[in-house]
């Protein structure tokens, strides 16, 4: 399965609570933090919900 790197690039300060919880569920606690996940539909849906706050790169 493909892996993706998710990096938080914008602050969650002025975001709705659901988006803050989505970032925490992805494992992103600080600005600039990078986490690696499998590219399954659940993770891709969470990334899509906060796409304005994160950047995504595909790894091998």
TrEMBL record:
The keyword Ribonucleoprotein is assigned to this record: yes
Record-linked Gene3D superfamilies: Ribosomal protein L30, ferredoxin-like fold domain (3.30.1390.20)
One protein family per Pfam: Ribosomal_L30
Keywords: Ribonucleoprotein, Ribosomal protein
PANTHER family, per the entry: LARGE RIBOSOMAL SUBUNIT PROTEIN UL30M, MITOCHONDRIAL RIBOSOMAL PROTEIN L30
Source organism of the structure: Flavobacterium chuncheonense
NCBIfam families, A to Z: rpmD_bact (TIGR01308)
Subunit organization: Part of the 50S ribosomal subunit.
Family matches, as InterPro entries: Ribo_uL30_ferredoxin-like_sf (IPR036919), Ribosomal_uL30_bac-type (IPR005996), Ribosomal_uL30_CS (IPR018038), Ribosomal_uL30_ferredoxin-like (IPR016082)
Protein family according to the UniProt entry: Belongs to the universal ribosomal protein uL30 family.
Domain (Large ribosomal subunit protein uL30-like ferredoxin-like fold) ranges: 5-54
Record protein name field: Large ribosomal subunit protein uL30
GO cellular component terms, A-Z: ribosome
């Amino acid at each position: 399965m493909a892996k993706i790197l998710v990096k938080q690039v914008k602050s969650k300060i002025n975001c709705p609570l659901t988006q803050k919880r989505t970032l925490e569920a992805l494992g992103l606690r600080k600005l600039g933090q990078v986490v690696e996940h499998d590219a399954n539909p659940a993770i891709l849906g969470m990334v899509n919900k906060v796409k304005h706050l994160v950047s995504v790169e595909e790894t091998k």
